[in-house]
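Example A, followed by Example B.
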Amino acid sequence: MKPLVFLKLGGSLITDKSMPHTARPETLARLAGEIAAAWAVRPGLRLVIGHGSGSFGHVPAKRHGTRQGVSTPEQWRGFAEVWQEAHSLNQVVMAALQAAGLPAVAFAPSAAVLACAGQVESWDLRPLQSALEHGLLPVVYGDVVFDTARGGTILSTEDLFEHLALRLRPERLLLAGLEPGVWADYPACTRLLATLTPTTLDEIAAGLGGSHAADVTGGMASKVRQSLALVQAIPGLDVLIFSGEQPGSVQGALEGAAPGTCIRLASASGA
């Protein structure tokens, strides 16, 4: 089986989260170029890309409380507003990927995923799997979805990747954001962890930070806990949390390098 890798382009990386509805087109163009370069070096690589909503979806989502549930007419209008913002950013991302010559195809969660209490309940993955089989580049993203318990909610890219990973079994999950990795002492940020395992989480739990700007899907603490759950469920999986701001870091990670913090079941020494 050809290797399978998941790559998330964080909302903090591809947008300016301090300014609503503001993408970072030069950064997106660079990232798309790095993905294309790695794709050329590893022609057998199967890759799924996900991206956050950043300053697009998170702002109206926070205003309307969409992730917690949707029931009133005003909340449903907010649901539609969040959808529009998420879709708008996805179009910007897709344009950058396609301009780099990548055969990217978007899979909108709002049109395919049904949730229950904020968790994926059903998602027909056959179209996405067909895209992988035919050498295409599937792209998913944080989006609103209908929810049988909450009416509506938001699923983050990590939520979607968790569901996909348990079924498709990638060998690596790459989370590229602004932070260089997981800090043991956030917000002082003086000790960056090279490796994090389930047994060492308690040592740094108090130092896990959230997000500097509007983030309705949990920030760093949520990413770390979801990643630790995944490496325990999928033998051999490595999750990398690293900065995509450093030119070449995304390309390097796709080609096998391990920037930032590696979350795995056990350390290299077997601890």
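Example B, a separate protein, is given below in the same form.
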Amino acid sequence: MKFYNWLIKYRLYIGLVLLVAGVLLNVTVSGFWPVFPLYLVGVVLIAGHFFFGPLRLIQVHMEEGNMDEAEKIVNSIQFPNLLYKPIRSVYYTLKGNLAMMKQDFEGAEKNMKKGLDLGMPMKEAEGASLLQMGMLALQKNDMKGGESYIRQALRKGLPDKENQAAAYLQMCSIMMNKREFRAAKDFFRKAKAAKPTTPQIIDQIKQIEKYISRIPG
């Protein structure tokens, strides 16, 4: 695994070295066919660098919580339009997530829209991106847009109970603002039924529970 990560990190340089070595051997020592394997491997490594990118390395750093290194790798991708389409979608989604962590909501929205427009490789990933778009819309007090995105996220499916609970709580708040109290209570029950473990979400549930039973509907 470490070798594979190392290869991803340095494959562009290795590919270039192999091509240069192939040309030199081709010209000075032998003909084309004896050095053809060097050309082939070099081209494959260079193509892999531009078509697939270093997203695996980004995933490793994000799982370890090393966001600075993850951002460095994302920023090292100079030609994102050359990435294979599903990978390009993930690339823009990652850029959106990193922008959200820095509270750059405009940049987050721009990149997440690009990712969604390209199509996500998994429905659950698309649902998570739609949920984040909904959160961004609510940050801008765009209640209609936020509700639309979150409803789409729930229809597409969300990857875990934490995201589901967060989506239901947001819908609960939206319904209370619209004074649709019966719908608000229904979404609140669904949020509790998801049994989230994230402290922030649990705290939100406790806060809403204090007064939701007293509202009509």
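On Example B: The chain has a mean pLDDT of 90.
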